[in-house]
Each structure stands twice: as structure tokens, then as C-alpha cells.
Specification:
The complex is a heterodimer of chains A (318) and B (377). Chain A is of the alpha/beta class. Chain A is built from 13 helices and eight strands. Chain B has 15 helices and eight strands. In chain B, strand 3, helix 4 and strand 4 form a beta-alpha-beta unit. Classes of the chains: A alpha/beta (318), B alpha/beta (377).
Chain lengths: 318, 377
């Protein structure tokens, strides 16, 4: 049996778990092709016009898998911890797909509401395995291997590597250190984000993303706002930004966002105001399906140059 | 004395003013949003903020300029981002140098303590239980009356013989309600409203019926939706909206406290297509569209602010649902750039299509063969 996993949205945050789990269950995992012009076009064709690029991309990736697999895995992410949920588009994702894409009838919709932790995660895994006619022990085994694989993935990030982009452990000696914050499905999809991170690394910057900051550090800033944000990924982004601004670990922050992203207008504005207050250089880059390569290059180069010059100036003053 | 102000929400503004006065506050009455308000709000809002965010920010700035020192608004528990608007509004306004206190009224289900604390801040007068009862009964009745006057106006506007009469009557009703001092007044006014509307000369025919669904602020506040209901009424269409402030307050404040999910049937109807609550009014939009279809309406218009997340989800589901229930569907996205004339053209075309569709259906019912029908087959 073949199971298709769309390479979009939550995929980038959890793919080691998903892939390992299905493989260990004895299924053949087919991941949709890396994002390309065709996939974006396919998605734009079917998705509702106002949706953000990542959601349109998800439609494209699902269409890319159609006809090739027995099941297409579509997660409905509701909660992965007790404090926050996800963007409404994540909550309504399977419903949107069912109405937007014609002849989509092999969707394996999995409702992920695991606010209470590991035990709930395992029982969820078990129910998925049951749906695919696999037994308890196979499910347990797959669950353990999948968890290990996700742990390793997270650890790689903490060491300073960016596995989904194929960037190994970065050298700490770099001239400028940059915090690049944004959602995993934008940062780690080199096509849609025009390889922002790769470009910065090639410019000689040391890039830190939210996944590279330990959870314990982020938690310290949980109470920073009077009211916590409602979305898991947004919380992670905002806390990372607070962490950068507070500890001055980085020379500047780049916020990578999607055009029309709902939660991000709040996240972005809070970061912008905070950065102004703390005097931290801050740049927002918004992407959509039409964003051009050159415009982004110019902005990134200018930003990095500015940071370098700022450093020299500071050194002279000191 | 506190100088309180709050966002402008249709005619309910009057009720809030009286409520705040009764609690012993001075009120800086928010102005009805104008183009100026919107451009003021847009200037200081992030690019992708939705229309209600911008309008409300503009209203706040105007109120603060007029001397308010306390802003009151509602919160929420997500995942719709509107629950965080007060937090961000406060940050933006403080960064602009205004000094004030922001009071957020959270829904009682999960934030009962905070809600009581905020209400305590707003009560600046010794009040007995009897007083509270009196104030709340009055405010509640007033909200209901305002909704009633509005509902009647929607029903009668398409039937009026003299154009504009209903609008005039409606304004008069709102004025009457605004002048009411106590519960008895309201009861009298209720009778008067019915009389006033009865006096309007009416045609006798069955108008096209269109249901309006969508995000609450743009549905309720005419200044935000370019007076779409009036526009429809003038075209001879009966427009009914899915949401009114009184029922909304009831479901979200009272029922929330009792942990009873409001509008159960609407949610049930939507659930085959919309399996998960996703905040805002996305699910209600779908459920109400089905409800309208079942009641024999001709079409549904969805109003949503640009980048509103729950409505985007609803928007991708609604066309299929409406096709299944054989009801016309038009989605209108509103932002600060939306022009009234452009909207009117779209609405006129939509109404024409619905009229043709109805004619076609009636013809089919009689068993006649229709040739050359442009719409449908």
C-alpha cells in the first residue's frame, strides 16, 4: 500500500515522525515532489483566491500525489500542547480540500488533538494504524521509532544545522549572526521562500531559526504578552524574537512571512514595535506566488551590509 | 470620573452609552465610522490587518483625540485573531503616544475572573442588586428593540412604494429608542415602532430573498459593509442577515457561562462540510447558508473582510454547499479600497441572475418548455 504525504505546511515541522511512522508500519511512503512552478500553479488553480501561498501550495502538493497513491495523508492539526491551537486554515484544511479539489476521495484525514501529551499521541497513532489494518505491536514499534527520529531531527537543529535545507552545522565564526524567524513551511521550502536561508548562509551569515532555539529558552517569554497568542507556530516565532531581542544573540532579525497571512499581521507588528524599542534591526520579507528573485536579493544584501557596517561602527565607538 | 469610549457597532452604540452612564462613567461617544476614520486606522495598522481592525483603530484614535481615557472592547479565545485585537490596538496606540487604559471584556466561559475584574473597573458608582437588575433588563430590552426595528426595516424596504420611506422610518425608530429613559418607555416605543412601520405604503408581491452571512462586524455595521442591506432593499430584495447583536451577545456571553454551545442547529447543519470549529464565524456562515437554502431563499451573500481567516475557510466550502442546495452564492470581500459603485454593479448582476433563475424555475414548474434560457438548463 502506498501513502502520500504532501510536502507542505506541517510537513516541515514533523516530517521525520510522519515518514518514519508510516514506513515502520510497512507502507510505502511517497512524498510529493519538491515545490515547483507546476505545483504552485496547480494549487493556485483550485484553492480559494484569498488563501495564503502555503495553503495554496498544500492544494498543489495534494494534486501532485493524486493518482499515484492509495491514501493521501491530510492532518487536521488542532493542538499539540495545552496552551495554543493552530491557524484556522489548519483547522479547516481537510474541509477546504474536500470542497476545492474535484475527485479527491482517498484522503486519510487525521485529527490531531494531543494537548495532553505522549499518551494521547500514542493512542492517536494506534487509531491510525488500526485504520490501516495494522496491529498494536506494529503501531507501538512504529511510534517509538518515529519519536526517536523526530527527536534526532530536533537535536540537529539545536546543534546549528538545518536538515530540511541540507545545511550542515554552521560555523559560529561568521561575521554576522542573523535571526530568521517565520513558520517552518516557509523557511524550509526553498522554492517558495526563494531560498532566503541558503542565500544568507552563502553571504556568510550565521542563521538562527526558531527551531534552533531550545524550548526552555522560548518558554521564558511565554508571559511576555498580557495575552498569549492562540497559535502554536506563532508563539514559537514570537518567543524566539523576544529571546533574540533580550539576549542580543543576533545582530538583526528577519521575519519571513506569507502575503495575507492571518496570524502574522499581529506577530509582525508586535515584533516591529518591540524591535524599535530595543533598537534591534528588523526586516520583514513577505512572499507570495509572484515574488521575484531580484527584489528579495537586493533587500537581503542591503540588510546584511547594513548590519556589517553597524558592527564596524560599534567597534570603533568602543 | 472615567471617560469611557468603545468601538462603534451599529445602533447598539446607544445602548452601550446608556449602560456606561448607568455605571457611573462619562462617555465619549464614538463617531460613526467615516472614510476619514478608516484612513486614519489604515495609516497606523499593519498592512494585512482586516477591515474591522482598521475601522476600530480609527475610531479609537478619534475617541482619544476627543478626550477619552479608557477604551473598552471585547476579547475572545481564538483561534480567530480578533481575540488579540485589543492587545495589539493598545500597543499601537501607546506607541503613538496616547495615554489611556484598555479594558478587555473576555468571554465568561474561560475568563470569568478577568471579566469580573474588568467589569469592576467600569462600575464607578454604588449600585444595589435591584439597580443592576434594572440596568441590565433595560439594556437587554433596548438591544432587542434595536434589532427588531432593523429586522422590520429589512422586511418592509423591498415592498415600499415610495423609495426611502423605510430608511426614514428606521432612523426615526432609532432616535426614539435613543431617547428612552426606562423600561416602560421601551414598551411604549415597541408599540410605536410597529405602528410606524405599518403606516408605510406597501406593494404586495413576493420579493427575491437573499441571506447575508459572514464576519460579524462587517455584517452588523453598515458603515463597514457599504450599506449593502439598504442597497439590496432598494433593488426590491428582501435581505436577511444571519447575525444580530442581541442574539450574538446572548449566545456568547450568557450561554458561554453555562457552557452551552450556542446556535446548535446552525453548527449541526454545517458539520458535514465543516467538521471543526475554526473560530470567528466561518462555521456559522456555512450553517446559516444551508438554513437560508432550506427556508427557500434565492441567494446567499457572504461578507468578509480581506484576509479574514475563518471566512477564507468558509469561502472555499460555500460554493459547493450552495451548489448542492441550489441557491445562488456571491462572496464579497471588503477592505479599505472597496468602492460602493463596484459593489453595486456586482450586486445588481447577482440579483438579475437570481431573478432569472427564479423565473426559469417557475416556468419549469408549470411544465412549459423554456427556449433560449440564458441561465441554467
Amino acid at each position: 500500500m502506498k501513502i502520500g504525504v504532501p510536502r507542505a505546511l506541517a510537513y516541515y515541522a514533523y516530517y521525520p515522525f510522519i515518514n518514519t511512522f508510516f514506513e515502520e508500519l510497512g507502507l510505502e511512503v511517497v512524498v510529493s515532489d519538491p515545490t515547483s512552478k507546476e505545483i504552485i500553479d496547480e494549487g493556485v488553480e483550485d484553492a480559494v483566491a484569498d488563501a495564503c501561498v502555503p495553503v495554496k501550495l498544500f492544494h498543489g502538493h495534494v494534486k501532485n500525489l493524486m493518482g499515484r497513491v492509495d491514501y493521501i495523508f491530510v492532518p487536521r492539526l488542532i493542538r499539540v500542547n495545552s496552551e495554543a491551537t493552530f491557524c484556522p486554515k489548519f483547522l479547516g484544511l481537510p474541509d477546504m480540500l474536500a470542497c476545492s479539489i474535484e475527485n479527491l476521495n482517498n484522503m486519510l484525514e487525521v485529527r490531531i488533538d494531543i494537548a495532553k501529551g505522549k499518551r494521547q499521541l500514542f493512542s492517536l497513532c494506534l487509531s491510525v494504524a488500526r485504520k490501516l489494518n495494522k496491529g498494536f505491536f506494529k503501531a507501538w514499534n512504529a511510534y517509538r521509532k518515529a519519536k526517536e527520529s523526530l527527536e534526532k531531527y530536533k537535536l540537529d537543529f539545536l546543534k546549528g544545522a538545518i536538515p530540511p535545507l541540507g545545511i550542515g552545522v554552521q560555523e559560529k565564526k561568521a561575521e554576522v549572526k542573523l535571526g530568521v524567524v517565520g513558520y517552518p513551511y516557509l523557511l524550509y521550502d526553498p522554492y517558495v521562500s526563494l531560498d532566503v536561508i541558503g542565500k544568507l548562509v552563502r553571504m556568510g551569515a550565521y542563521v538562527v531559526t526558531p527551531e534552533m532555539v531550545p524550548e526552555t529558552e522560548k518558554r521564558k517569554y511565554a508571559r511576555r504578552l498580557r495575552k498569549m497568542l492562540f497559535w502554536t507556530f506563532s508563539n514559537s516565532v514570537l518567543r524566539t524574537a523576544f529571546h533574540f531581542m533580550e539576549t542580543k544573540l543576533v545582530d538583526g532579525i528577519i521575519h519571513v512571512t506569507a502575503f495575507g497571512c492571518g496570524p502574522d499581521f499581529i506577530v509582525d507588528k508586535i515584533m516591529e514595535l518591540e524591535a524599535k524599542e530595543k533598537n534591534v534591526p528588523f526586516l520583514t520579507v513577505a512572499f507570495d506566488e509572484h515574488t521575484g528573485q531580484e527584489g528579495v536579493n537586493t533587500r537581503l544584501e542591503a540588510f546584511v551590509d547594513m548590519l556589517k557596517r553597524r558592527k564596524v561602527k560599534e567597534a570603533i565607538v568602543v | 470620573m472615567r471617560k469611557v469610549s468603545f468601538p462603534y457597532v451599529g445602533n447598539a452604540t446607544i445602548t452601550f452609552k446608556k449602560l456606561m452612564n448607568a455605571f457611573g462613567n462619562e462617555v465619549v461617544l464614538p463617531r460613526r465610522p467615516t472614510e476619514e476614520t478608516l484612513s486614519l486606522g489604515t495609516k497606523y495598522s499593519p498592512e494585512f490587518a482586516c477591515l474591522p481592525f482598521k475601522i476600530v483603530l480609527g475610531t479609537y484614535i478619534e475617541a482619544l483625540e476627543a478626550g477619552a481615557d479608557t477604551l473598552v472592547s471585547t476579547g475572545g479565545v481564538g483561534p480567530c485573531r480578533a481575540g488579540l485585537y485589543t492587545t495589539l490596538h493598545e500597543k499601537i496606540l501607546k506607541s503613538l503616544g496616547y495615554e489611556f487604559e484598555m479594558i478587555t471584556l473576555e468571554p465568561p466561559g474561560r475568563h470569568l475572573k478577568e471579566l469580573i475584574a474588568s467589569i469592576k473597573k467600569l462600575v464607578n458608582k454604588r449600585l444595589s442588586f435591584a439597580d443592576y437588575y434594572r440596568i441590565i433588563r433595560f439594556a437587554w430590552k433596548e438591544l432587542q428593540l434595536l434589532d427588531k426595528a432593523e429586522k422590520l426595516s429589512h422586511k418592509i424596504r423591498p415592498l415600499e412604494v415610495k423609495k426611502g420611506e423605510t430608511t426614514k422610518t428606521y432612523r426615526k425608530c432609532a432616535e426614539l429608542i435613543a431617547q428612552a429613559r426606562d423600561y416602560k418607555d421601551l414598551l411604549e416605543i415597541e408599540r410605536e415602532i410597529e405602528l410606524l412601520y405599518e403606516r408605510i405604503e406597501k406593494k404586495d408581491y413576493d420579493p427575491l430573498k437573499i441571506g447575508i452571512v459572514g464576519e460579524i462586524y462587517v455584517v452588523i455595521e453598515p458603515a463597514a459593509n457599504l450599506e449593502i442591506e439598504e442597497m439590496l432593499g432598494d433593488l426590491g430584495v428582501y435581505a436577511e442577515r444571519s447575525m444580530f447583536l442581541a442574539s450574538y451577545t446572548f449566545y456568547n456571553a450568557v450561554m458561554d457561562l453555562l457552557r452551552m454551545p450556542g446556535e446548535r442547529d446552525v453548527k449541526k447543519l454545517a458539520s458535514p462540510y465543516f467538521k471543526e470549529m475554526c473560530g470567528g464565524h466561518g462555521r456559522e456562515s456555512v450553517g446559516n447558508a444551508i438554513l437560508f437554502a432550506k427556508r427557500g431563499f434565492d441567494g446567499v451573500i457572504q461578507l468578509s473582510p480581506f484576509t479574514c481567516i475563518p471566512e477564507i475557510v468558509a469561502k472555499s466550502i460555500l460554493p459547493k454547499v450552495c451548489a448542492k442546495y441550489d441557491i445562488g452564492f456571491l462572496s464579497v470581500t471588503l477592505d479599505e479600497q472597496t468602492g460602493k459603485e463596484g459593489l453595486r454593479t456586482r450586486i445588481e448582476a447577482f440579483v438579475d441572475l437570481l431573478a432569472a433563475k427564479r423565473k426559469h424555475k417557475e416556468a419549469n414548474k408549470k411544465g412549459d418548455v423554456v427556449y433560449g434560457a440564458l441561465f441554467g438548463n
